[in-house]
Write a structure and sequence with these properties.
Largest sheet: 3 strands, antiparallel
Oligomer: single chain
Structural class: mainly alpha
Strand order of the largest sheet: 1-3-2
Order of helices and strands: HEHHEEHHHH
Number of domains: 1
Number of helices: 7
Number of strands: 3
Mean pLDDT: 89
Amino acid sequence: MQLTRAADYGVRVMIHLASADTNPRSSLSELADAAEVSPAFLSKVLQRLVRSGLVASWRGKKGGFELLERGRCASLLDILQALDGVPELNICLLSGGCHRSPWCAAHPVWQEVQVRMRDTLSAATLEQLVLDTRARQASLSVGATGRSPGQAS
């Protein structure tokens, strides 16, 4: 079980869009740089985010991509569902399951882990991820310079 590259890049882009302080609209090339991915691949990811109603796309000279209100309120679970869906821990959890599920002692464990993963993803909001990202970046700045940002030399 592993997130796809599309899911990873989609989360990166959503955090970047939600972090925008001045211009809420970002170009494909800006987003590709922020996500460290090729514009061609990211374009496909963004199309899925647009179709899901998390992001809007605008054409033209002042075009780009912008978070919609639904995107601003999104959780990691919402973002993953818009892209590839949430990975299933084991094939026995998929629709149709496994013929061993009724007597398999591991099955309830896989179910519990899957529920907890979904709960954790649901609790991780984009807003909180942005705050956490800013705090982590600030602590890295302090660690690199030995002083907090804005502190005089």
